[in-house]
Amino acid sequence: MAEQYYGLTDPGKQRDNNEDAFIAQTTVNGRFVIACVIDGVGGYSGGEVAAALAREAILKRLERPAGEVIPILLDCFNLANQKILAAKKENSKHDSMACVATLALVDLERNQFHYVHVGDTRLYLLRDDSLVKITHDQSFVGFLEESGRLTEEAAMAHPKRNEINKALGFETTLLKDDDYIETGHSPFLPGDVLLLCSDGLTDMATKIEITDILTGKGSLAQKCENLITVANANGGKDNVTAVLVSNDKQATNYDATKPIATQKKTELDITIPPPTPTKVNELTSAEIPAKKRSAWPWVVVIIIVLIAAAGGWQYLKHQQADTPMANNANTDTLAASTPKPVDSIETNLQTMIDSLKGNVLLLTDSLYPKPIKIDKAIRIDKDSLFIKTKGHITLVGDSAYNGAAIELSTKAKMIFIDSMTIKGFKTGIINYNNALTLKRVSFADCVVPVQNEVSVPNNKPVSGPATSLKVDTVTVKPKPSNGATGKR
């Protein structure tokens, strides 16, 4: 268990005190990992005090968590906010103190994590050696960087980098603005790693440097030390804090035709454990009883392959009479190739999404130099998918088509689309259960750009915001207490 999480903080090279704080420990008998990074707002008196008060409030609230996870985590931030505001009234020297924070509750048993975030601390997910930034910096410079107006290097050196517009201790209530606290949840698959960190790391170390450390060898403790070392080596201008959580379960490889892919789910389930791996290859060749094996199965396979090849050859000859032959595109790297005819591009795009082995899909305008004409919704059945584009990629609706350009399935948990134009559809994207995040996506001549839907189980009570209803569950029965739980 100790190797599944670790946290470390350092004052850096230019500051005497450390206004950062962190949490890296378990709760509920080891089932959940609490991972949190808190940064006292720099330049304000009492930043260190605010961070300590927030840490204390979060730990106290998570001693006996009960109910839905996101409301519990929001309650942690609300309680921390109240404690900071009360302390500011008691001590005039600390009347400007505040802190920013990112808090994640990792469900080790069910392979998922939930998070809340305010400010410019960050949460990253490392999956398949790819580092994805989950949270959004609530600052002007952060907005410029995420919108593509500033490069990472320019943002790191910007004079207003540390100016934030949201924090714990700024507002008397966090509920008046639904967007004040960022929330979310995602699968936490075997082999995944979470990184929570303060801006003392991300202002001093690039994404490439961080990725190299996280994908390198060594324990979580060693990787935390290496992250702080590189930040200090690059200047160490601020306090540096890093918390790592690893899902060290053995990764399972799934076949493309696994039965679970075709199962129809009648209930919303945000806690799906990974399917039990098939054990067809459990015996080695040495353990198989020595006996002469029949050659007939191989003969049948060869005959089938020859028939299929002959049919494919005839089909290709027929296609060549009408259109030039197109090169095959690698579905994982999407290397540039000669584009297929427009009427087959949609099918090609759907095939690439369905057969993608990882969770990052790169689309380039060299592969799709013309708008992609859609006469059937592109369906995304994956739990997580990051669609990134290079160049100008446009989806256009066929004149006779009245459906959506993209439709998420109810299984989707985190779908991220970066830089795309969706033009001429009755509905641009059908989104289920708040799984969709957009960045630089334009909608042109779409009656409904994004249609948000909610899937609910049959004949079961649900609770939560109307855009993200969940089955009522109680994780741990709370013990009687004189204090209010603040459940919403």
From TrEMBL:
<dbReference type="InterPro" id="IPR001932">
    <property type="entry name" value="PPM-type_phosphatase-like_dom"/>
</dbReference>
<dbReference type="Pfam" id="PF13672">
    <property type="entry name" value="PP2C_2"/>
</dbReference>
<feature type="transmembrane region" description="Helical">
    <location>
        <begin position="295"/>
        <end position="316"/>
    </location>
</feature>
<keyword id="KW-1133">Transmembrane helix</keyword>
<keyword id="KW-0812">Transmembrane</keyword>
<protein>
    <submittedName>
        <fullName>Serine/threonine-protein phosphatase</fullName>
    </submittedName>
</protein>
<dbReference type="InterPro" id="IPR036457">
    <property type="entry name" value="PPM-type-like_dom_sf"/>
</dbReference>
<feature type="domain" description="PPM-type phosphatase">
    <location>
        <begin position="5"/>
        <end position="247"/>
    </location>
</feature>
<keyword id="KW-0472">Membrane</keyword>
